[in-house]
């Protein structure tokens, strides 16, 4: 009976402040959608790191006739120099670190370049001789790329040694910055949601100040008085949280899986299993935030 009375009071409060409740639902929905999106972005970045770092290779670029560095001196790498590099890669010193490697000559590099920049005017100005012949090396442990760099840097005919992970690091720094920006926006909006919830509860308490006075005169405890107001905030935030969960599932289903995964085949993407991980986080954050804001707001009001 007492619980039914508390629910009745909470429902009455929601009806009296319907416009404010709708505002709380919308702000909570938008802010938690940002939170969910930011979490998904972090998961996506983690998946992409695993996917691409596992596939990253070390490139040993051989000299071209246009390179005037000390190891090249304006001469294309000779067959002997290429053979010497291959022998080093197959030597007992380096072979234990290498899973596999292959050599790409000028023509093969040119064919790949033409395919990659198909339709781009820059492809018309590039000739095979301008592109490096390259040894592409897949290491057993990509973190050991320094071993290859130290062994082959400065060798005659080698223009340079590059770990592809250095390019990936730059991309992931940009993605992390975007993710942190989304988190910052979400935090600001969560603060706004908490303030709006607190304001809604205080207005609800003010509109029922006579009822509260009577309840206190008949001996109702502060806990009994506060509970309906806390439930108001929690119920409004719960609706917003569930809408945010629905938005996260929609983003994954229709945008990530329905569009990105079909049009970008070169990487892996987050799926519905990741959305199921995010869902309870959003609900807990929304409910906890509303409970805290409502509790603080009504306590301050009762002290007045």
From TrEMBL:
GO terms for cellular component: plasma membrane. Keywords: Cell cycle, Cell division, Cell membrane, Membrane, Transmembrane, Transmembrane helix. It is a multi-pass membrane protein. GO terms for biological process: cell division. Residues 57-161 form the FtsX extracellular domain. Pfam families: FtsX, FtsX_ECD. The chain crosses the membrane at residues 20-41, 174-201, 238-260, 275-298. Residues 184-303 form the ABC3 transporter permease C-terminal domain. It is found in: Cell membrane. Signal peptide: none annotated. InterPro entries: ABC3_permease_C, FtsX, FtsX_actino, FtsX_ECD. Its main location: membrane. NCBIfam families: FtsX_actino. Belongs to the ABC-4 integral membrane protein family. FtsX subfamily. This is Cell division protein FtsX.
